[in-house]
Design brief:
By secondary structure, this protein is of the alpha+beta class. Helices cover 42% and strands 16% of the residues.
Length: 128
């Protein structure tokens, strides 16, 4: 699994391009909270919005997640742990006044970008 990229994946690049085309500027692969060792795919510091692009396999997508045939228990525990960490991250960010936006990798990037833009603009972040 070492060859799996943690950033700059095709779905992430498509989302970033679509968000950028809407006039929004962001930080890539940043920590919304310095003391929290969790990285968001897109960070809007002024608006306090963190965007996470979740992979269907790694985060247990209800539509596309497949059960691994080899080492099934290990992978089931791994995905369950990822989902628990996602919920914990969202809760910690909410406590600090941030909004988490979760997007599945299979979602249309333009539709997802519109959703991100709505949240960011609702929180008063200026467009450039």
């Amino acid at each position: 699994m070492q060859s799996n990229k943690s950033r700059d994946t095709k779905p992430e690049l498509a989302l970033r391009s679509a968000v950028h085309a809407l006039g929004l500027r962001y930080r890539v692969a940043g920590r919304p909270l310095a003391q929290l060792r969790r990285t968001a795919d897109l960070v809007f510091p002024r608006a306090k919005v963190a965007v996470f692009l979740d992979g269907c396999f790694w985060h247990g997508c209800p539509e596309h997640h497949t059960v691994a045939t080899a080492n099934g228990k290990f992978w089931a525990d791994k995905v369950a742990g990822n989902r628990a960490r996602d919920r914990d991250t969202d809760g910690r960010l909410a406590q600090a006044g941030w909004v988490s936006v979760r997007i599945w990798e299979h979602e249309d990037p333009h539709v997802a970008a519109e959703r991100v833009a709505q949240v960011v603009r609702a929180r008063g972040a200026p467009a450039r």
